[in-house]
Design a protein that fits this description.
Elements lengths: L1 E5 L5 H10 L10 E3 L2 E5 L14 E3 L10 H11 L13 E4 L2 E4 L10 H9 L1 H5 L6 E4 L16 E4 L14 H6 L3 E5 L2 E5 L11 H10 L7 E4 L8 H6 L3 E6 L2 H14 L3 E5 L14 E5 L5 H4 L10 E6 L9 H11 L4 E10 L3 H11 L3 E13 L2 E10 L1
Parallel strand pairs: 6-7, 11-12, 11-15, 12-14, 13-14, 15-16
Antiparallel strand pairs: 1-3, 1-4, 2-3, 5-6, 7-8, 9-10, 16-18, 17-18
């Protein structure tokens, strides 16, 4: 289509009058001022004699398709003669640089390499950012797996790391060769290897609650029975606490370690056969125990009664933290010199939330439930609940 380039402002009205009179004016586009040159867009394919004295040029008036995930996938299949999509187009995704993780609304486990490359080519328009190198589909973890490993993550594009046997204990070389992604939530950096350990996106609400509600923890101790990659422990650290953390997945401990390094915290990792003295906490911010929390009370046997300023204990295991209730109660009553808040995480039906609250107060002597936090829903009427239990 033709655009007229008018340099004399006195000619603007006469030209536009002619265009309007003959219905040649493109009313969808406004007159533009380009450094003193006024551009008038027409719907003419050739210039009529009445306008021949004016400078003109061509412009593209074809509507441009909006680049989107759906557009790219549908265009690819159309170009390759496929009548039916072999991949259900995700409606949602999460970005964990440098990875895009699609929601699990497809049973397919494959996307053509060329299609993935096309998506990454347009990543700024599709995903709103650059630097993406990996694509994957997220599927729920198996609740019975106590190590919380992402068995069902489906890599679509990019090298996610070597195939390792499920009983393989990772080496430093394995950590180096793995693919790592990260996220920053509430100003806190967290990282993990998605092929070997999970990330729980929905915990962000509870992390923020910790940051907002439990400030000024300098001089206090927080014990995390199921620390993972540092989901909640990093929030307590940011508020000034020292943390003692237990985790059985070495990949999670490695992710936690990297987050601590990124934030500049001092830490020490204890293997199951390494000795521990509570005085060692004076020289570090975090002690990470790569072992079952069934050994937790043994780690405190050398500590005199009522000597530790344990302000918080976090029991962040779902679907239920019940296996650790007794241990947490013993730790508080035997070793804590102050009132301690135990955060019990449970998946609870809405009809049972108050009933469980009463049960908790009956199970924990000299306790009261200070607050009940509904974090998120897992299924109809099933909530991730955190009970804040104060034990005197």
């Amino acid at each position: 289509m033709i655009q007229l380039n008018i340099r004399d402002t006195k000619q603007l009205k006469p030209v536009t009058d002619v265009l309007k009179e003959n219905q040649w004016l493109n009313k969808q586009k406004k007159i533009e001022n380009h450094n003193g040159v006024f551009v008038i867009y027409t719907n003419l394919k050739s210039l009529p004699p009445i306008l021949s004295q004016y400078d003109f040029s061509q412009y593209d008036n074809e509507p441009r398709a909006k680049i989107s995930l759906r557009y790219c996938i549908e265009t690819y299949y159309k170009q390759h003669g496929l009548n039916k999509l072999d991949f259900e187009i995700p409606k949602k995704w999460s970005i964990y640089p440098p990875m895009v993780l699609f929601n699990a609304n497809t049973d397919k486990k494959y996307l053509p390499k060329a299609l993935c490359q096309e998506l990454l080519k347009h990543q700024v328009k599709i995903f709103g950012r650059c630097g993406i190198t990996h694509l994957a589909i997220n599927k729920p973890i198996i609740e019975s797996d106590v190590m919380r490993r992402p068995f069902n993550i489906v890599p679509l594009y990019g090298d996610f790391g070597p195939e390792l046997a499920m009983d393989h204990w990772p080496t430093e070389a394995d950590f180096t060769n793995a693919f790592w992604c990260h996220v920053v939530q509430n100003g806190i950096y967290q990282t993990w290897a998605p092929k070997y350990t999970m990330f729980s996106r929905g915990n962000i609400k509870e992390k923020k609650r910790i940051l907002d509600c439990y400030k000024n923890l300098d001089g206090s101790i927080v014990v995390d029975f199921y620390c993972g990659i540092g989901y909640f422990a990093l929030s307590y650290l940011k508020n000034g606490a020292k943390v003692l953390c237990w985790e059985i997945n070495p990949w999670s401990i490695e992710g936690f370690k990297r987050a601590l390094q990124h934030a500049g915290y001092k830490y020490k990792i204890y293997q199951q056969d390494e000795s521990f003295q509570i005085d060692e906490l004076k020289n570090v911010d975090a002690c990470l125990f790569l072992e079952s929390n069934e050994k937790l009370l043994e780690r405190f046997e050398h500590v005199k009664e009522k000597k530790l300023n344990i302000k918080h204990i976090n029991l962040g295991l779902l679907p239920s933290s019940r296996p650790s209730w007794k241990t947490a109660h013993q730790l508080v009553t035997n070793k804590s010199c102050c009132e301690t808040i135990v955060h019990l995480h449970e998946n609870v039906h809405t009809n049972y939330i108050d009933t469980l609250k009463n049960e908790i107060e009956a199970r924990f002597q000299e306790s009261r439930v200070l607050y009940v936090e509904r974090v998120k829903t897992f299924a109809p009427d099933i909530w991730h609940i955190v009970y804040d239990v104060e034990i005197k």
